[in-house]
Amino acid sequence: MHKLFPSVLALALFAACSAHAATPTPAAAPDVARDPAAAWDHFLANADGSKGIFDAYNVMDDVGYSDNEVDADACRTHAAAVRGAVERVPVSIALHRTAMLCADATGDQATAERETAAVAALAKLALSQTGESRSGRPARVLRPVDARAVVVTAGLSGLYAYYPEWRIYRYMPIVVAAWDEDRKVERHLSFDFLDATTAILRNPEAKYPFLRTSVAKSLLDVTRDANHPEATDAVAWREARETADPSARRDIARRGATAGGVMSARFWLLLCERENAPERCADGFVDTLLPYAEKNYGYQTMLLAWAYANGVGVDQDAAVADKLLDRADAHWSNMGASVAYLQLWYDLHDEPLPAALAARLARAEAAGNENATMMRLRAMLADNETAALTDKDIAFLERRSQNGRGDGFAMLADWAKAKKDDAAHARWLKQAAEAGDPDAQASEAFRIAYAADGPHDEAAGLRMFEEAAHGGSSFAGRMLSYKAQAANDGAAAERWLLDGVINAEDRFAAADLALLYDRKMPGASADGDAAALYKALEIDGQAAARRLLAVGFMRDDSTPKDIVRARALLESDAKQGDHDSEALLGTSLLNGRLGPVDEAEGTRWAERALAGNSDAITADYGYWLFYKKATDASRAKAVEVWHKGVRNKDEAAANNLAWAYCTTQVDGFRDGKAGMQIVAEMGAIEDLNWGYVDTVAACRAASGDFAGAVELQKKVVDQWQKIIAGYANASADIVKQSREVQERLALYEAKKIYIEPLDSQME
């Protein structure tokens, strides 16, 4: 999507080159040979990427560095540059290795011993951080060449490399497939240089995740231009994903695969297996893979096995496929080829594994492949979210190796939530957030900042939202953007949305950004192209994003307010049977948000949404029937609609029904006992937001429990006081609502119920 928005990309690239913040005078750096972890901490805290850090690596070419060799004469010529490079980047194992080889080549024994110790320490640290679990955290390096240097130092031989994730999160893992001669297997070790690179840029824009994405893409372009096959692969894969024409996608993927790229080849295969595959899609696929399969490269051999198993570009031959996959498994540690093969299968199918593939998964798990165990558990919980997990399964998901980024804890949190084990859910969600899972961090941030009983610690919550946004949560970015918009900070509001648009392809972020540009918020880019975003969303967006756009067009502060466009957006999806669009269209027509009230048409769409069990209809449609149409028949219908929402666990519908039962002045309708029965369906008091607690208090009073009503209403008043305190100039509506909750408290203290004037709901 982002190709439509050149101004957004220009802003990102400008930020990457903008002025750097001043860095403090550093203390003495720890000895990297003695404490490499402390040396890394010191480097990240003090290094300034604008001061030749990355240029230091150029000396490797100057001295002819090649894993285990350098040119001795060149080392003598560039001796000062080699020393300077190591001093500038003391955490680079590649530069220390260059210095070590140069010292050895020129007979400088003392320097060779010192650099050997540094190389060994950095390699040991990196190897302790990396592994073959896809749920682990990648080892920290500063450049891809450092990852290869770790591999070589460990006595392994680098075969090929690849970037397994198209989307850029906090990390951009590069996996090095390396041959372990002692074990006679191919190992796949994961490294990351993005987090460290971003940290030392000292750029004010680094506060926002879009800069991380911009830096990652720039680094890929640079390394692709330097003919690094893994970068060529990554760029081709990304370009193929972003290209609409299937034939062009195939051609781009073929380009990456021909350069030795495994992810491009994988994408090419998936493209040819899908229904809209271009004609003769797989022509050349097998020939492209063969040179690498002949070298026994595990990934390409696995892809070739798939081609034979499924007749992709070659006659189908199950026997040849099995032999190729067995050969790849023998080469790839712990049957890694089978696990990669099974992931391909899951990407194309939504059903249980066939018996033969299930047997391969079991053998891979028995061989100690942790990715196989994780795959089994993911599939099991996807099929049945409350499936029984054994103590062994739980212990596995709690392992450090499964929580480099919080994956295992997040799975357990989801499982506990499905089983309605609130205590376990809260515990595992907190652990997932602490381990870096961005969705868990966003959930925890929301809880911390906007707890159920009112604001708790908004500053701490916002800090965690920032962590979540950098981890890849576009929801967190949107929340931060809303906060910036409330402060009238258009620059920050825009920047928090950019990564969701550019990197995550989040239609909601794109809709928010379009509306921000449309309203011309001060501080946002003056040339922000709302029209391009609108066009992309209207043509290619999801129904939920188009609903968001429609709401924006209906707002009084939209520039311009465009109810014709809003209605067209909603009708386009409603006519296709999207029930939530039917709901919004119906209630908007009934409430006059799309022009004059159209009761007949609004009711028609609302009833269609109701028949379709839309979660978005029962609360609002019932409200309109009870308070706006307000006839005896419509009120009876409202109760019916609200009860349907209660059965469907719609808390808003339950709240509206309980409020009507407990506060209405309609003769013969008020029923505190019935209201308390509905309140019981809303959940535990401590889990309800303050507005719902206000309803519970009203129902307690209506049922005669004035002491209970006073107890709860005091909490509501306390939260409103906190809300008021958070505004420099609270709006008249906020002040009015604050006064009303205090007036209700006074009534309950006087043992009186609250009866709401009907005209107050008509406003």
TrEMBL record:
Residues 1-21 form the signal peptide. Keywords: Signal. This is Sel1 repeat family protein.
